[in-house]
Amino acid sequence: MNNTPQDSSLGREVAYPAHYDPTLLFPIPRQGARDEIGIAADALPFIGHDRWHGYELSWLDARGKPRVATATLTVPCTSPCLIESKSLKLYLNSLNSTRFNSDAAVLERIATDLSARAGADVQVVFGLPPMAETPEGESIDGLDVEIDHYGPPRAEFLAADPEESVEEVLSSELLKSNCPVTGQPDWATVMIHYRGPRIDRVELLRYLVSFRDHAEFHEQCVERIFHDLLAHCRPTSLSVEARYTRRGGLDINPWRATADMNVPLMKRDLRQ
To answer: Where is the NADPH-dependent 7-cyano-7-deazaguanine reductase N-terminal domain (predicted)?
Structure first.
């Protein structure tokens, strides 16, 4: 499959779907972006998933009465393809006029269609994770630092002190990148949990801000951050999660980690 972002419906006027249409889902192979940063297909340095939150899900019951719900969709990072966000929105909207005999049939249909396009089993459940009541980790956003580079990402900014080993969770709400097709801004809170040499917080903030004018999909940005931290700071354990703000009734939360790290608690950021 050679789908590229430019082949998708992003940035184009698309008719609102009147009928159920699984072909609206647009898969993009992950490996192209991974090749750019040196991640081999047969030796992924991480585990993880892409967790989508859907706020605008609706369909008709067997008698034609509308039903509404929210949903959480989880795509494994080992899937050959990611699902482009606008295509996911259009696909979910195509269910609006479709009758289902049961709520379970809705979940089964969405999971089946997404799994076929992503190339791996996708989990779909009704409902959303709770909101995080307090900020997670220690924010680095208040650091007194002068910044003048906003893209492309500068991995060489990253540094760590090999003489001091720590375990900590650092967070920032200043992660911003841009859609590689439309140029629209994508905003996120990023949480970095690591064990190993103490990461220089000032340089970490400079690095995260260097994504500000960078054009790349959410999932790819998180994989780049994970790869750069692993290569330049040498943590023994690492987890990177980004919670992107909502667009078109969807938000995405990519997570990548070394195999020894636990799956983070499912929470939503206040900005979502």
So the answer is: 16-125
Residues 5 and 28: beta-carbon distance below 8 Å? yes
Nearest to residue 111, comparing CAs of 84, 56, 71, 80? Answer: 71
Return the closest-CA partner of residue 171 out of 212, 210, 199. 199
pLDDT of residue 7: 53
Query: Annotated catalytic sites, by residue?
Result: 179, 186
- Residue 131, classified by CB atoms within 10 Å of its CB into exposed (0-12), middle (13-18) or buried (19+), is exposed
- pLDDT of res. 128: 98
State the pTM of this model: 0.92
Tell me how far the alpha carbon of residue 28 is from its chain's centroid: 14
Residue with tokens 């067997």: 62
Half-sphere exposure of 16 (CA within 13 A, CB side): 5
Q: Which residues are annotated as a binding site?
A: 83-86, 218-219, 247-248
- Taking the C-alpha atoms of residue 26 and residue 24, their distance in angstroms, rounded to an integer, is 6
Q: How many CA atoms lie within 13 A of 14 on its CB side?
A: 16
Whether the Cβ atoms of residue 99 and residue 61 lie closer than 8 Å to each other: yes
Measured from the Cβ of residue 262, the count of other Cβ atoms closer than 10 Å reads 8
What residues contact 100, with CB distance under 8 A and at least 6 apart? 59, 60, 61, 62, 106, 109
Query: Which positions make up the binding site for substrate?
Result: 83-85, 218-219
CB atoms within 10 A of CB 263: 13
Averaged pLDDT, groups of 10, the chain, 272 residues long: 54 71 97 96 97 98 98 98 96 97 98 98 98 90 97 97 97 96 94 98 98 97 98 98 96 98 94 92
- What is the distance of C-alpha 116 from the center of its chain? 19
The answer to whether 92 and 98 are in contact (CB under 8 A) is: no
